[in-house]
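User: Show me a protein chain along with its predicted structure.
Assistant: Here is one chain, sequence first, then structure tokens.
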Amino acid sequence: MLLLSLLIYIAAGAVVGFVSGLFGIGGGVIVVPMLLPIFQAQGLGMDVAMHMAVGSSLATIVVTGLSSARAHWRLGNLVLSALPWLVVGLVTGALGGAQLAAALSGDILRIIFALFVLALAARMIFALEPPAGRVMPQPFVVSLVGFMIGTISSLVGIGGGTLLVPFLIWSGVTMRQAVGTSSAAGVSIALAGSIGFIIAGTGEDQLPALSTGYIYWPAVGGITVASVFLAPLGARVASRVPAVWLRRAFAGFLVIVGLRLLFSG
């Protein structure tokens, strides 16, 4: 049974890696809606399944994000003057977001995730991007924004890139630096959020074997390994498809995911 489950997670990871590479996004938006029905099929109730999907998603981002952050650091794409202030806010917010998520029912958490995904789709459909050319705010403001982004990201199980990149561009950072800084900062969100979900799930009596709190390690391992190998394939396909088609396809994908989750209760 464990072997079959691991194969399912590897297959899910292959899809996550390909789609992430195709659309250039972190896997959290894809991992959570994929894990939720798998966990439910294994007999977990909505409350435990949704919390475990979010916690396990954050754990996968720790591993994949480290590789991305290291590459951007070598390329000099990190805004080191802002990164420490961002991380302070992000870590604090991520820890708080995990505790907030634990206090919510699985259905409420599912609805919050669905609404977040639909809002992201709307931003892509209507090209709602912030104006560039401003200057980096004061450190306190950077930390405050980081706190809010960390809370939301931990609550829905993402690395925060969909929120961090627009903020950094608005702050006058180039796209390349925004992506690089976001990848490094996202590791802190995922790590703090994972710790928060481990703490929040301690004592839960419905957790399956091989889990630590709300993190299920077979899912984390299978998805991480497979996604690393399939992401480059998705990126190669993306390089041959017009950007506007990719944008529309991804927005449509998010609408389907969001509506399915919203009305699946």
